[in-house]
Specification:
By secondary structure, the chain is mainly alpha-helical. It is built from seven helices and four strands. Helix 2 packs across helix 3 (79-92) and helix 3 (79-92) runs antiparallel to helix 7 (130-143). The longest helix has 22 residues, at 51-72.
Length: 150
C-alpha cells in the first residue's frame, strides 16, 4: 500500500464518515467537522455533504498531509511510516507535527524511539481521550510495519 493508502486507512477507521457537520468532541464547538474529519472554511453547524464530497475531500486532505510530512523528512521513510506520520499530522496539524519529538527522533534515525512518540498525542483540550489512545496505537502499529486494526 502507498503512504496515502496507509494514512487513509487510519483516518477512515478513526474519523469515520459523517455527512452532517458536528462539533469538535473535545470542545463541543469549533472546529466543526464533516466527512472524514474535514474542518475549515465553509464547515459549520448545518453543513451537509454527499458521500462523494466526503471522499473527494478525504483524498485532498490526505494527499496534503502526506506531502507536508514528506517535505519535513530528512531521511527516507517507508510507506507505512510516512502514512502513520501523515495520519498523526492530519489529526494534530502540520505545524504541531513539525515541532514534534516524533519527527525529530525519526529524522535523527531513532526510528524505534520515534514510534513510541505516537502515544504522547492522546489529549484534546487537555483531556485524555480513549479514542485518541486507540488511534495512536493503530498509528504506531502501522509505523512499525503492521496493519490498521491488527
Amino acid at each position: 500500500m502507498s503512504a496515502y493508502d496507509n494514512a487513509a486507512a487510519v483516518v477512515r477507521k478513526w474519523e469515520g464518515c459523517r455527512l452532517t457537520a458536528y462539533p469538535d468532541p473535545a470542545s463541543g464547538g469549533d472546529p466543526w467537522t464533516i466527512g472524514y474529519g474535514a474542518t475549515g472554511p465553509g464547515i459549520r453547524r448545518g453543513t451537509v455533504w454527499t458521500q462523494q464530497q466526503a471522499e473527494q475531500r478525504l483524498e485532498q486532505d490526505v494527499n496534503r498531509f502526506v506531502d507536508g510530512v514528506r517535505r519535513m523528512l530528512k531521511r527516507p521513510a517507508t510507506d507505512k511510516q510516512l502514512g502513520a506520520m501523515a495520519s498523526l499530522a492530519f489529526n494534530i496539524g502540520l505545524k504541531r507535527f513539525e515541532g514534534s519529538t516524533l519527527l525529530r527522533l525519526f529524522n535523527e534515525g531513532k526510528t524505534e524511539a520515534a514510534g513510541k512518540q505516537f502515544g504522547v498525542w492522546t489529549l484534546a483540550s487537555g483531556k485524555r481521550m480513549q479514542g485518541l489512545v486507540n488511534r495512536r496505537a493503530d498509528e504506531a502499529k502501522v509505523f512499525a510495519g503492521g496493519e490498521v486494526g491488527e
